[in-house]
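worker-03 picked up job from queue 'complexes'. Input manifest follows; two sequence lines, order preserved.
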Amino acid sequence: MSVIPNRGPRRRGHLIPIGGAEDKIGTRAILSQVLELSGGNRARLLIIPTASSIPVESGNVYCRVFTELGAAAAEVIDVRNRQQANDPGLERLFDGVTGIFFTGGDQMRLLSLLGGTLLAEKIIEAFASGITVSGTSAGASALSEHMIAFGRSGSSPSQRMVQLAPGFGLTDCMTIDQHFRQRDRLGRLMTAVAYNPSLLGIGIDEDTAFVIAPGDDCWVIGSGSVTIIDGSELEHTNIATMTQHHSIAVTGMKVHVLTSGYRYHLGTRQPCPPA
Amino acid sequence: MSVIPNRGPRRRGHLIPIGGAEDKIGTRAILSQVLELSGGNRARLLIIPTASSIPVESGNVYCRVFTELGAAAAEVIDVRNRQQANDPGLERLFDGVTGIFFTGGDQMRLLSLLGGTLLAEKIIEAFASGITVSGTSAGASALSEHMIAFGRSGSSPSQRMVQLAPGFGLTDCMTIDQHFRQRDRLGRLMTAVAYNPSLLGIGIDEDTAFVIAPGDDCWVIGSGSVTIIDGSELEHTNIATMTQHHSIAVTGMKVHVLTSGYRYHLGTRQPCPPA
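worker-03 finished. Artifact:
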């Protein structure tokens, strides 16, 4: 478990969670931004498709798109078990890498297979050294320290509506949800923030990304929106007194819904309209 | 969210999770050790009873015991809502404090009420500056970054058997369970480690404590045992493919059961018998 605080002096790369179903054939605004922040035409990308039940196909889709967009190199790391994820031969794959991309699938597969392995350690090290890390859908959820593992749909919060598990820990101040509007996930994100209101909830729609720059400045790109649930001024919640699956009360929860071009600062927790 | 990595150069205090139901009238070995590591007869303790549904009574019990054992001062901070937990007047209570103690109760009450407040921030700051922090039962679970919030009993792991929420984050490499043998919690601790095998599982019996020193050396005290679940050599788990509440498979999970006097090193993950 190697946590990289989002505030503080430590060097780290751009972190780009994507809400899933990003455009792969049109303008490809999100994947172009990923490529640009990974080094543009000098980018050497590692694609990690471990979340997917069809890893070869999933990995190859992104290899093809990034190559079409102009990446210098894009390679899939296809590990199927923990032994492979601990193979010292993996280390050389990180030589010269400028970006790491996680495909979608199931975040529990990703973490139960990679958590605590050499491959996970290399990814965390690469991010800490300044490499851009991005992920879509399950690959977005997996980036944070507190990962939404499962949950129920619905727009209002209820007890035990969401289940958390430890993610890769590339950011520790937020939990990330994806397919947000499309799968009606506001309630579970509010529930996660009610568990511990120090956590920021980031809900990302499909074809939308939340770019987190090393200096804590963030911005939204894509066709949908990013919903931010800020519990820092939460006045009250009865979550500890409710029994399983009952609706819970929260008062003073702050919500921002930001579309493409809007910015947000993690340190001050202030949103900012496009210039 | 302020995470203090358990490895690394940052200063921090002793951390003492207790499995609940510790002796308060006999030799009081555990509470005596808490007192000793909090400054002995120069100790000035803050008791935080927020987890309890009867905070005044719970807090006063520990004030009385620590005073009888020779503490220079012991004071209860009785905050009942988030407004009180954000009162700037709380800051002065931390002047000269040498130890912080969390009572038992419900860890969800503790975190949903204190998470992200000034009081939580002061506790984390105090720990980072070298102050000893201890907690019993719910107060033990709440110390870690990944906190076991709820779960089912039973000795073998199953899907969704345990639910995690963000705790105070005073250690990020382990999750802590309590009343461990008495409430039959081995299965849920193994499930938590299967979620992400980088996490160490620490299951503490009643009247037992796991003392975590700043240099990563740990030791067990009390009448029961501490069960350590180490997933670092885990070979395989099918947790991502099982549906809700089904039994899951794990292979290569390492287990240590340590009794009073045994030591454990978090960096090397090596247990060590008493000298």
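worker-03 released lock.
Residues 1-9 of chain A have pLDDT under 50 and may be disordered.
The CA atoms of residues 220 and 260 of chain A lie 5 Å apart.
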